[in-house]
Specification:
With about 375 residues, the protein is mainly beta. The protein contains five helices and 21 strands. It has three domains: about 100 residues, no CATH class; about 160 residues, Sandwich (Immunoglobulin-like); about 70 residues, Immunoglobulins (Immunoglobulin-like, Sandwich). The longest helix is centred in the first third of the chain and has 17 residues.
C-alpha cells in the first residue's frame, strides 16, 4: 500500500473513532442496505455485485448489526449518487461477496429514515417478460399430487439486445389462495448469454406473509453481458388438493411483477419495457378417472381448501375416520364426522389423513 493510502487509512480510523463516540445522524451506513432505500433486500445485491474488488475506508468498530453506523465517505460514488461506503456492508474497507452475506443476515430489516434514490438513465428500452412454458394444464383425479409448471425470464429481443447487463433483481407476487409457501423456485437458465450457474450469484427469499418472492441474479466478475434471450428458469408447484377443492372448472394462476431493477457493469440502472406485468396460466379441471384403479373412483374432496372456519369431507363413508396433523407430525384432531371445525387452529398447512373402505388418503389442507 502506498504511503498516501496508508496515511488516508489511519486518518480514516482516527476520524471514525471520534465519530463513533456520537450517534450517527447523517448519511449513516445501515449494514445490508447498499442502495440506501431504507430496507435490506435483493435489490442491494446489485450495487455490491457491480463493485466487488473496490476498496476504501473501513468503519471504526464496524459490525453487521442493523443499527446506523458512522462511516467516512469513500472517494467513489455510484452513478445515482450513493457513496461506496454503503456497499461495504461489513465495514472492513473492501467490497466482497461477504458483504452480500450481511444483506441476507439483515433481510427485510427496515430503516424508515432513509431516502429512496433513483436514477434515470437515457437509452433505448429493451423488453423484459416472464413467460410460462405452457398456457394451460389439465387436472383430474388421476393427476399427480403436485403439478409442476415452468416459466422463464426473458430479456430483450434479437433486433434490440440489452447491453452490458450485470445483474437484475425483482419481486414476484403469487396468489395466496393457490400457492403454498416454498412452492416457487428460481435458477439461472442454461446456455444463457448472461451466464450460467457457476458464473452468477443468485439469492432468492420468500416473504410468505405478503405472498411474495424476491430474487436477484448478479455477476461477480465486473463484466456486463450483451445479448437477448432466456436468463432464468422458474418452477411453480401446483398442489392438487387445492385445485380439487375449488368449484370452478377453470382456475387462472396469476403472478404479478411488483418491482424490477436491472443494472449494467458501471452501476447504471437499465430501463426496460415489461411486456406483461401480470402473466398467468390456466388450470382446467377434468372429471375423468382411471378405471383400472378402483380406489381413485372413491377419492374424497376437501371443501373448501384453503379454509377459514369449517371444512367438509365430501363423500366420506359411515365407517371412515380421519386425523388432522400439523407439519411437525402432531395429531391435532381426530374424528369420523364429515365436518371439521378449524376456526381455533393457527393458520398454516396441515395434513388430513382419511381411512375409509377404499383405502387411506392424505390431503394437504391450508388454513388462512
Amino acid at each position: 500500500m502506498k504511503l498516501q493510502h496508508l496515511l488516508s487509512f489511519f486518518l480514516a480510523l482516527s476520524l471514525s473513532g471520534l465519530q463513533a463516540q456520537t450517534q450517527c445522524t447523517d448519511d449513516c451506513v445501515w449494514p445490508g442496505d447498499a442502495n440506501n432505500d431504507g430496507i435490506a433486500n435483493v435489490f442491494d445485491l446489485l450495487p455490491i455485485g457491480v463493485n466487488i474488488g473496490e476498496q476504501g475506508y473501513p468503519r471504526f468498530d464496524a459490525s453487521s448489526e442493523w443499527v446506523p453506523q458512522q462511516a467516512i465517505d469513500w472517494e467513489q460514488t455510484s452513478p445515482d449518487g450513493i457513496n461506496y461506503k454503503h456497499f461495504d456492508s461489513d465495514g472492513d474497507g473492501y467490497i466482497t461477496l461477504a458483504d452480500m452475506n450481511v444483506v441476507n443476515a439483515n433481510y427485510s430489516a427496515i430503516n424508515n429514515g432513509s431516502i429512496v434514490q433513483t436514477s434515470d438513465v437515457p437509452q433505448d428500452m429493451p423488453t423484459f417478460a416472464l413467460i410460462f412454458d405452457t398456457e394451460e394444464i389439465n387436472f383430474n383425479p388421476d393427476s399427480p399430487e403436485d403439478l409442476v409448471v415452468t416459466a422463464g425470464l426473458y430479456v430483450a429481443e434479437p433486433l434490440q439486445p440489452i447491453y452490458d447487463l450485470h445483474g437484475l433483481a425483482m419481486q414476484l407476487q403469487y396468489p395466496q389462495d393457490l400457492a403454498l409457501p416454498h412452492t416457487i423456485s428460481f435458477a439461472p437458465a442454461t446456455s444463457s448469454f448472461f451466464g450460467e450457474e457457476g458464473e452468477i450469484y443468485m439469492q432468492e427469499e420468500e416473504i410468505a406473509q405478503y405472498n411474495r418472492m424476491e430474487v436477484a441474479f448478479t455477476r461477480t466478475d465486473g463484466t456486463g453481458k450483451t445479448g437477448n434471450g432466456r436468463i432464468a428458469d422458474i418452477e411453480f408447484i401446483v398442489i392438487g388438493d387445492i385445485i380439487g377443492g375449488r368449484a370452478e372448472q377453470e382456475v387462472d394462476y396469476y403472478v404479478h411483477i411488483n418491482d424490477l431493477k436491472l443494472i449494467d457493469k458501471k452501476g447504471n440502472y437499465i430501463q426496460v419495457d415489461i411486456l406483461n406485468p401480470n402473466p398467468h396460466f390456466t388450470i382446467i379441471k377434468e372429471n375423468t378417472t382411471d378405471t383400472n384403479n378402483p380406489s381413485t373412483t372413491n377419492s374424497l374432496s376437501i371443501i373448501p381448501n384453503p379454509a377459514t372456519d369449517l371444512i367438509w369431507i365430501e363423500g366420506l363413508s359411515a365407517n371412515a375416520e380421519w386425523s388432522l396433523y400439523d407439519m411437525q407430525g402432531r395429531n391435532i384432531l381426530h374424528n369420523s364426522q364429515n365436518q371439521i371445525d378449524v376456526a381455533a387452529l393457527p393458520r398454516g398447512v396441515y395434513l388430513l389423513q382419511i381411512k375409509h373402505e377404499g383405502g387411506t388418503e392424505v390431503h394437504k389442507v391450508v388454513l388462512q
